[in-house]
């Protein structure tokens, strides 16, 4: 490891060690998104209408409720990984990058928490 | 130290240097549709679930917003982003196996993905609105 050129300063250090995990999770969640969002797409097309009664009765059933919870977890996780790459590509200042990734992680947990609460609330019959 | 040795050194060329090809377009489209959905798509998803949990009145507000011209534009945009991102994402999964890098094959699938995304969007809305 030298301190001259860019490549000289990193040569011999090996990988950052976290890249493969991120890359694999992006693929796993992509497969999860493919299955769950296609479930939602087909469900939207198969439902007789999209009125409150029809949709809330549909999403209260066990399989759709679990499928949409999985959809939320998978898509938010996938979006978190994707937006992290966006931040790392375009936000170069260290403090801003840290703040952006910190905010991203908070939203990536807050969004699914709200969504899961909503689905459970409907499924347990809040308006039945 | 962070920038030591980088002053006035040649950098690898960026977008404006290369001759444009479908593979560049589909790559940029994949990022734009993905990051677009992360904001608009997940936002509408949360609104939809929140409106359902809130009851008939809040669902009516959601339905009103989504059936205005801007609402339809957002929904069509999200569905197009999804189908495009799905097609280019499936392309990425194939490329991950090491297949599809021959120049002609790569160009063909780079052209097929965004077109398939548009066709699937049209098919989805046709089935939804004409049933």
The level 1 CATH classification of chain A is: Mainly Alpha
What helical percentage do the residues of chain B reach?
A: over 70%
Secondary structure: number of strands of chain B? 0
SSE succession of chain B: HHHH
* Beta-strand content estimate of chain B: under 5%
Mean pLDDT of chain A: 93
User: What would CATH call the architecture of chain A?
Assistant: Up-down Bundle
Structural class of chain A: mainly alpha
User: Which class best fits the helix and strand makeup of chain B?
Assistant: mainly alpha
CA radius of gyration of chain B is 20 Å
Top CATH class of one domain in chain B: Mainly Alpha
Most extensive interface, chain pair and sizes: A-B, 36 and 34 residues
Our count of domains of chain A comes out at: 1
Overall shape of chain A: elongated
- Count of helical stretches of chain B: 4
Biggest beta-sheet profile of chain B: none
Question: Approximately what portion of the residues of chain A adopt beta-strand conformation?
Answer: under 5%
What best-fitting shape of chain B do the alpha-carbon axes yield? elongated
Unreliable spans of chain B are none
Identify the notable features of this structure and list them briefly.
heterodimer, A: 128 residues, 5 helices, elongated, B: 131 residues, mainly alpha, 3 helical TM bundles of succinate and fumarate reductases
Please tell me about this protein's structure:
The complex is a heterodimer of chains A (128) and B (131). With 128 residues, chain A is an all-alpha fold. Chain A has one domain: 3 helical TM bundles of succinate and fumarate reductases. Helix content of chain A is 79%, strand content 0%. Chain A has 5 helices and no strands. Chain A is elongated, with a radius of gyration of 20 Å. Chain B is mostly helical and 131 residues long. Chain B is 76% helix and 0% strand. Chain B is built from 4 helices and no strands. The termini of chain B are far apart.
